[in-house]
Design a protein that fits this description.
single chain; 6-stranded mixed β-sheet; 19% strand; elongated
Length: 306
């Protein structure tokens, strides 16, 4: 039995992208604090969540007003530094060294627990993280009324237990739960984002543009054209191009080229030849592939491993 191209589309490009970019779990961590305190963290490239499980605290981000967080709040932070504090006026200290050593997953400040936080997230194996992070705001808050809020709450409960205990396999469990929480938070963000949001992740919620994205991801090497994609989603060429560009932030074939090059970079880093990679991402000519790669990354593909 043969299926149409539409019937074969990949149902979840977000998961595919995370897997293709070598997403890895960031270990679950905890903080219990009392009195006056403030910890700052650097802006390393990752998707990081911070969740309040007891009390309240303040979140401080560059170019944002201080945000108060209370029990049950979950925020997702991308490529930016941030500070958590008992009060915005408290001078922060670097929180990174407190968690630097293996096994130092729980930090306690003070002799009581007025506020408790847990954190974690997903990092990326190489420099391709921008493909995900550029499609998300530097800071987002999970809407408690969203359809995934209950799943976030359940995951938080389990994660809090794993971070606080020394049970067999607890570290691995905490990492997996942290990964699940990041995905749930992104899902909640997509579900509640306005149609004016720009980025391929939120565009997945658009019935027609989301279908086009799934088609592109299902067969990245296929010789897609704009008229072909427009026909698949039931739109005119001009209307489709305009809508895709508005929702995703770049025209359809520009998006496809960018994703092809991100995949190519991963394959090259894994040791595949330029010729094999070029064919895998839809180029019959190594010259055309090299030109597209250099236009995207500013360097030739051979500098990435072959």
């Amino acid at each position: 039995m043969s299926l149409s191209r539409s019937a074969e589309i990949t149902p979840d490009p977000f998961s595919e992208v995370l897997a293709a970019l070598g997403a890895r779990s960031v270990r679950g961590t905890g903080l219990e604090a009392a009195g006056e305190w403030a910890l700052s963290f650097d802006g390393r490239t990752r998707l990081k969540f911070v969740a309040v499980t007891k009390g309240r605290c303040w979140l401080l981000l560059p170019d944002h007003s201080p945000t108060v967080l209370v029990k049950g709040d979950v925020v997702l932070i991308s490529n930016t530094r941030y500070t958590v504090a008992s009060d915005p006026a408290v001078e922060p200290v670097d929180g990174m060294p407190l968690y630097a050593l293996p096994g130092h997953d729980m930090v306690r400040l003070g002799d009581a627990t007025e506020t408790a936080l847990i954190g974690g997230g997903s990092g990326f194996a190489d420099g391709s993280a921008a493909f995900v992070l550029d499609a998300l705001p530097s800071f987002l808050r999970v809407d408690r009324t969203s359809s995934t809020a209950e799943a976030v709450a359940r995951t938080l409960k389990f994660l809090r237990s794993e971070v606080s205990s020394a049970e067999l396999g607890g570290l691995l469990m905490a990492e997996r739960l942290a990964e699940i929480l990041v995905i749930a938070a992104v899902r909640a963000f997509v579900a509640t984002s306005p149609t004016t949001s720009v980025g391929w992740i939120t565009a997945l919620a658009d019935p027609r543009i989301g279908k086009a994205l799934r088609l592109l991801h299902a067969d990245v090497a296929y010789r897609w054209t704009v008229p072909m994609l427009a026909s698949e989603v039931g739109m005119s060429r001009s209307a489709f191009t305009q809508r895709f560009t508005e929702r995703v932030g770049r025209p359809p074939l520009d998006y496809l080229t960018r994703w092809r090059m991100v995949l190519a970079q991963r394959k090259l880093n894994a040791g595949q030849t330029v010729a094999a990679v070029a064919a895998a991402v839809g180029y019959n000519s190594q010259s055309a592939f090299s030109h597209a790669f250099k236009r995207t990354f500013g360097r030739t593909p051979r500098s990435d491993g072959c």
